[in-house]
Amino acid sequence: MAMQGLTLLANKQLALNGVRFRNIGLNYPGAIVRIYSQPSATACAYTPGSEQDAMLDLCVAMKVKVLRVKAMPFWPAQWRYGVNNGVAGVAATSGDREAHYVAIDNFLTKCEARGIGVILNLFFRIASPADLAGQTLRAGWLTSGSATRNYVQAVTQEVVTRYVNRQGVYGYELSNEVNHYNDASDATRGSYPGVNSSYGTPASYSAANDIFVGLEWSGICAWWYGIVSAIDSQRIVLTGNGPNSYSQPGGTAGISAPLKNWYLEQVRDNPTNCGSIHFYGNINCTSANFTGIESVLCGARTWQQKNQRGFVLGEFGNQPWTVTNAVAATGVLTLTVAASCPIQVGDKFILGGIHSALNGYLQTVTSVNAARDTITASSSATVSWSGSVKGLQFMSHERTQYMVNSIINSDVDVAMMWMIDSDSGRPILESVSDAENYQQIEIIKNANAALGW
Predict the structure, then answer these.
(1) 27 has a pLDDT exceeding 50
(2) Which among 373, 392, 411 is the end of a domain?
(3) Do 132 and 49 fall within a single domain?
(4) Can you give the chain as a three-state secondary structure string?
(5) Which of 225-229, 263-267, 446-450 bottoms out in mean pLDDT, i.e. has the lowest?
């Protein structure tokens, strides 16, 4: 079989057609199916072709050559009315799923015409297949021969077989950041999976039944990798893991000391031919404004290579913080954010969706409290606002440039910025098509030019 997609060289660097491949790519989560703007719980909205074209043309302008895409919907109801063509549960056949696969085909054709490859994420919300099967997460995913496993295996085999010789498919990915909750014993366990009973989820989940523990997640990843690699032994296969939040059973959030334990857990939880993490600067390493990212990425890449794997930075960049209160008076803007924000004095940030007098302006941090949930900056505006919106974008163009430089300097082959999407329901400031983030387009374009594109 001729080499297709992203493969690995002997030294575990990524390659395309046998030649080393490096690129700053993008996450385009809603490329095929609407993720945020769903019209009802009994439909699955597909992204219009004209919208796909516009976003892909932007990718061409940015010299982006690889995209991370959700190949399937998010909530169980969308799976039913999209992937399964209206068939309830997991009774759908490959024939029922054909129309959805054609939608993927059509998007890939557009990518191929522009010289862009796609990493297909199949089960972004790990609970959805179990929800469809009427099983708990652990019973469904961990039990051999379960309805959940049978369904996951059938869909995986159909997709990989369909695209094994397709130029536009660069790799496959299982899910997204499931490992964040592995080995956690505090209250954060209860926050996963997300509940939306109108869209087919149970009314509630429990830590005992719906959170993987210890080696369970690694075992699932290895099982799924076996399904993929039995059909396609060449392309890269990712778990979709972020940086682990817990490096010891019962541990607390953040990177552990020494870092070796943190890297070893990434090795444990990425039992495929290519490891991956996500990095947003909020994982308690060195300083709050990304100092040390080169060493973190070098370490992650090196540990994966030591274990005969490639390495991909699956997400970096945009992750706006939720602002719960904003007051600007007497020359000072005071913001309250919902959680500890990786920002420090002297950093610049942009606001959006809060108040017209504040939106879109680059501002400089003058103080941050110890908890990093109260931030001040100078401001000539006089406004008061109270609510809740993802409105603080700490990724100024200087930070974007710093991260991109660090990715290149740490010899990472592929890194994909979060996010690019034109879904009208997407979170504010999370797309490079937003006017406030326009400089990021030029930065990524220039970085890819420096990489030879």
Answers:
(1) yes
(2) 392
(3) yes
(4) CCCCCEEECCCCCEEECCEECCEEEEECCCCCECCCCCCCCCCCCECCHHHHHHHHHHHHHCCCCEEEEECCCCCHHHHHHHHCCCCCCCCCCHHHHHHHHHHHHHHHHHHHHCCCEEEEECCCCCCHHHHHHCCCHHHHHHCCCCHHHHHHHHHHHHHHHHHCCCCCEEEEECCCCHHHHCCCCCHHHHHCCCCCHHHCCCCCCCHHHHCCCCCHHHHHHHHHHHHHHHHCCCCEEECCCCCCCCCCCCCCCCCCCCHHHHHHHHHHCCCCCEEEEEECCCCCCCCCCCCCHHHHHHHHHHHHHHCCCEEEEEEEECCCEEEEEEEEECCEEEEEECCCCCCCCCCEEEECCCCCCCCCCEEEEEEECCCCCEEEEECCCCEEEEEEEEEEECCCHHHHHHHHHHHHHCCCCEEEEECCCCCCCCCCCCCCCCHHHHHHHHHHHHHHHHCCC
(5) 263-267
pLDDT single digits (tens) 55-103: 999 999 999 999 999 999 999 999 999 999 999 999 999 999 999 999 9
| Within a domain: 412 | yes
Q: Which domain holds residue 256?
A: 6-319+395-450
In a domain, 150, yes or no: yes
User: pTM surpassing 0.85?
Assistant: yes
State residue 77's pLDDT score. 97
Give 359-395 pLDDT, tens digit per residue.
888 889 999 998 889 999 998 888 888 888 888 888 8
